[in-house]
Structure formats: C-alpha cells, structure tokens
Amino acid sequence: MNLSAAPAIEVQNLRRSYGDHVVLDDVSLTVPQASVYALLGPNGAGKTTLVSTLATLLHPDSGSARVAGHDVVREADAVRGAIGVTGQLSAVDDLLTGTENLRLMADLLHLPKAEGRRRASELLDRFGLADSADRTAATYSGGMTRKLDLAMTLVGGPSVIFLDEPSTGLDPRSRRELWDIVREIVADGTTILLTTQYLEEADQLADTVGVLDGGRIVAEGTPAELKRRVPGGHVRVGVADAVELDAATRVFPDAVRDDATLSARIPSADDLVSVRDVLGRLEDAGITSASVTVETPDLDEVFLSLTQPAAPSRTASTAKELS
Q1: Residue 55 and residue 144 share a domain
Q2: In this structure, is residue 127 part of a structural domain?
Q3: What span, in angstroms and rounded, lies between the C-alpha atoms of 296 and 235?
C-alpha cells in the first residue's frame, strides 16, 4: 500500500436527512488506496445512505465526499467511471451464459470488442468459472453466481468497489472462496468499501472497521484495536482430568469451569505478564500438564457494546443482523 498516495475515499462532515430525520450526522472517514474498509452498524444506522451517496445515487445535504479523487457531487460522472458496485441483488442475467454476461457488461462499458472478449476470458479464469463459461447462469450455484457478479463488476477495471453484503446466503466454503478473491483484488490495488452482516467477514477482510450508529461513526480502527476497547479478555486453561480441573478452579475462584471440555475460563488481561502469572500459579498448584489459550473479545461483542439497542427487547442475534 502506498501510504503517501491520495485516499481512495475521503468523507468530511457529511450530513443527510429525510425530512426531520437525520440519517448521516457529520460523518467523516478516510479509506487508503488498496485497502478494505468494513462499515458495520445496526439496521437504520445509515450505511445504505452513506454508500448510496458515495456512489452518486444520493446528494448530501452538506459536507463533502471524494471517491478516486473526484467530488461525488461536482464530478459524479468521473466517480461513476471509477467505481464498481456489487449489491445484494445480483446483476447477473440467468438466461445468459457466464461468458455472455461478461461480454454484455463489456459492451455496456463501451469496451472495444476484442478487449471485451479478452477481459471476459481473463475474469472467467481468475474466478474459477472457465469450465462453466458456456452454461447459463441459471444453472450456477449461489457461490458461482456471486463470483460471476463480482467478475462483472471488475470488467471495467474500477479502482474502488462497493461490496454490499457480498456473501449473504453463501455456504461457509463459498464464503471463504469469495474472501480469497476479495484479498486478491485488493492485492492488485483495488480499494473496497464493504458492508456486511457477518462480523467474522469484517474481522477476516478489513484493514479498518468503522461502526456506524445513529448516523455517526462511533468507533473506528483495525479489528484488533476495536477488540481491545471492550473489556472481557480471558485465558482458557485446559487440563488432563477432572481432578486437575477441580484444582485449577480452586486456584482461580473467579474462573468459569467447563466440565465437557475439561477447561476453565479465567478473567485476565491478554498480555504476556498475565499468561505467565496464570502458568506460575498453576505450576505452584502442581498442575503441569495445562494448556493455555489467550482469548479476546470478538467483533460480535464489540458491535454489541458500541451500538445502541434498537428496542428494549433487542437480542444479540438480532443485533448481528446488519443493514
């Protein structure tokens, strides 16, 4: 990543309202080139409005935003020429083959015919779809359709891509294959703004995570930085048998024991000093076969701690359904 290069996305004090309802309230963020910025937030937080504004589909009430160096209001055509958008609704035509879908996209982008054919062939190979190139998209699996949809986004060589919940509905294997493709795209220099309902996806892919709540960015940082903001780090100690588990829980009365896995969850900081302290106390108690694993809060816990409940009855499961 070229840290001296101009940001791929730069948002300053962006505001947008619908009547009296403020959807974006003084939002500012910066996304470096060739990086992934994951935007998280509960339903109604303003994610869709922000992405629509950056994609020139909506005008802000005030503030400014630049994408690929172009102002989203004054230079909307230039922005549209620099971006690709892959949403929850696929752009794939099920009646066309994989090759035909890609060539159609090339025609819509006014690429020369030879270049369009070259790009289609190149992308089919890159996304592992060459063997299915002459099959209609209606016969593709969900994962294959997502790959083709993303390939269509890349036909024009965009420098910035907006991915709106790209792996929704995919099985775990297809989801991880898609993640690998996203990593390759970013390694080639493309910038991605990602919205997702899978917090693991943000954890796996994002260089920076922004948590949007109530129209404001309430937290921003790497996944590791955000996890450190939430208390609750602990050390999990695994032992050989129930006798050692009894001994370990006597040494650490605040531990939560798990008889099924012969382990105990000990509240602790996630640093080396704390781990040494745990190991030393276990050794003093004659427990020498213990295994120790440091565990920190995950992004689910970060999300729940940083966002306000939409209603008093909101649960952890509904909180993870991000818009």
Answers
A1: yes
A2: no
A3: 9
CATH of the domain at 186: 3.40.50.300
3-state DSSP call for residue 208?
A: strand
Element containing residue 225 per DSSP (H, E): helix 223-228
DSSP 6: P
What is the tally of helices (H) and strands (E) in the chain? 12, 14
34 and 180 belong to one structural domain: yes
Query: Are residues 273 and 197 both part of a single domain?
Result: no
What's the domain range around 291?
234-295
pLDDT digits (tens, 9 = 90+) for 75-113: 999 999 999 999 777 899 999 999 999 999 999 999 999
Q: In this structure, how many other beta carbons lie within 10 angstroms of the beta carbon of residue 62? A: 11
> Model-level pTM greater than 0.85?
no
User: Residue 131: phi, psi to the nearest 5?
Assistant: -70, -20
Report how many domains make up the chain: 2
- In this predicted model, what pLDDT tens digit does every residue of 150-162 receive, in sequence order? 999 999 999 999 9
| Same domain flag for 240 and 203 | no
